């Protein structure tokens, strides 16, 4: 069982997937910081607020004994839109990467075909000639 697991874990495709997953996670962090640090503030200028903090109060809360507001319910549409922007950016970049890889694959020359052996007709003719002798 251990040998089978080792063979499975060391397959090339699985290693490629693992590397892609790690790179994708790191890339998502870059996109999140780009969206949160650059895109959201610029869009926030339009709304005169931090874009990630856009939210709609659905229910008022009450003050507890400590003087803290509890029970408030918000619809956090700013954070949702930020996450959608993150997804769109990541999806677009992944599209460009896949498109580039496909373009590189098309440029590769196809492997030369293996030399074809004699056809069936040639073999049958040779057998006929051998039988005639």
Automatic annotation (TrEMBL):
Keywords: Cell membrane, Ion channel, Ion transport, Membrane, Transmembrane, Transmembrane helix, Transport. It comes from the Bacteria. Its main location: membrane. Homopentamer. Channel that opens in response to stretch forces in the membrane lipid bilayer. May participate in the regulation of osmotic pressure changes within the cell. It is found in: Cell membrane; Membrane. The gene is mscL. InterPro entries: MS_channel, MSC/AndL, MscL_channel. GO terms for molecular function: mechanosensitive monoatomic ion channel activity. The keyword Transport applies. It is a multi-pass membrane protein. The chain crosses the membrane at residues 21-47, 80-98. The keyword Transmembrane applies. Belongs to the MscL family. GO terms for cellular component: plasma membrane. This is Large-conductance mechanosensitive channel. It comes from Neotamlana sargassicola.
């Amino acid at each position: 069982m251990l040998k089978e697991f080792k063979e499975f874990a060391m397959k090339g495709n699985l290693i490629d997937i693992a590397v892609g997953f790690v790179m994708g996670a790191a890339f998502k962090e870059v996109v999140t910081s780009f969206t949160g640090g650059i895109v959201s503030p610029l869009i926030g200028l339009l709304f005169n607020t931090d874009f990630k903090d856009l939210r709609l109060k659905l229910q008022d809360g009450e003050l507890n004994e400590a003087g803290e507001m509890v029970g408030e319910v918000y619809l956090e549409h700013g954070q949702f839109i930020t996450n959608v922007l993150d997804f769109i950016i990541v999806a677009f970049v992944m599209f460009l990467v896949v498109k580039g890889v496909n373009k590189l694959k098309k440029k590769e020359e196809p492997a030369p075909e293996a030399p074809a052996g004699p056809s069936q007709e040639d073999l049958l003719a040779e057998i006929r000639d051998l039988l005639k002798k």
